Amino acid sequence: MTSNPLLKRLLTRLGLLLAALPLAACDLVVMKPSGDIASQQADLIVTSTVLMLLIIVPVIFLTLLFAWRYRASNKSATYEPDWDHSTRLELVIWGAPLLIIIALGAITWISTHKLDPYRPLDRIDENRPVPQDVAPLVVEVVALDWKWLFLYPEQGIATVNELAAPVDRPIQFKLTSSTVMNAFYVPALAGMIYAMPGMETKLHAVINKAGVYDGFSSNFSGDGFSHMRFKFHGLSNADFEAWVARNKAEGSELTREGYLELEKPSAKEPIRRYASVSNGLYDAIVNRCVDGSKMCMAMMMAIDASGGGGKGAIAGLASKPWGNDDLERTYVSALCTPENAGDYAPRAAAQSQLKLR
Hints:
Layout: H1 5-20, H2 36-69, H3 87-114, E1 123-125, E2 128-129, E3 137-144, E4 147-152, E5 157-160, E6 162-166, E7 171-177, E8 182-185, E9 193-195, E10 201-205, E11 211-217, E12 229-235, H4 237-250, E13 252-254, H5 256-262, E14 272-277, H6 281-286, H7 297-305, E15 317-321, E16 328-332, H8 344-356
Parallel strand pairs: 3-7, 6-12, 13-14
Antiparallel strand pairs: 1-2, 3-4, 4-5, 5-14, 7-10, 8-9, 8-11, 11-12, 15-16
């Protein structure tokens, strides 16, 4: 070891610098996002942390102070072995945390309703409300193994692993999954929300600054989970229209058969563009009847809501091999096909009523 004090200080500072280098790769997008919803969530994190530190910091300080003040070697400290109560101290010990809990409870109550992902936006940012003549951009999101499919019903296009939206326009995401539960997360835009098979969740958000942002799955879903990433582009209105036009010019048609191929597990998928989408595809994905050979979930629920008919009372039963063995699984067919997928719920209710009679 060297005995030179200056060299020791230099080595110490160099060690601290090397230890801090990994922090240089940290992305502070969660605390400095570009979307209003994410900004409000970041403010909520800061406010909650500060309120809790109002208790934590004094407790840590007083713990160290008492340990030093009443150490065994300090003979000048007051020694009262029979002391057991102080009303003023009890008021401080219990009153301060109680006030913090009340404040946190009020903030949580307000924020839970204000930042509800299902709640339509009422503002673009803290200074601008949503104009009454502006409709949200609807994006239908499907979590696949292991890639993301984005459908734009208003524009009639679809993409894989690429998402775009105009700056300062509200976005309404409708999310589902093809097989297992997943989680949609763009830190710069809004908080995480789950996507589940056979169900639809919603997320409302807005991006306030043009740029390219990272999006990914934040819920483990199998082998290709770590590569389930995409880019979110915040664009001006003109650039967004150009992006839509590019997809229409370069893309192909996303048919039901094409979706069934896309749905098969695969990782590190490149960006794909679709100039058109088969009618009713997203609803069929949610209701798990894209191939048209089995009854849609909405139809099943309509039959159940009408009293049910039982397996033996339903026409159109079929069977097919299931798994790698010779067993066959029976399912309801014919009632939901690509031709009638758009009106399966009313049709199911009517057929159910006829069978019950």
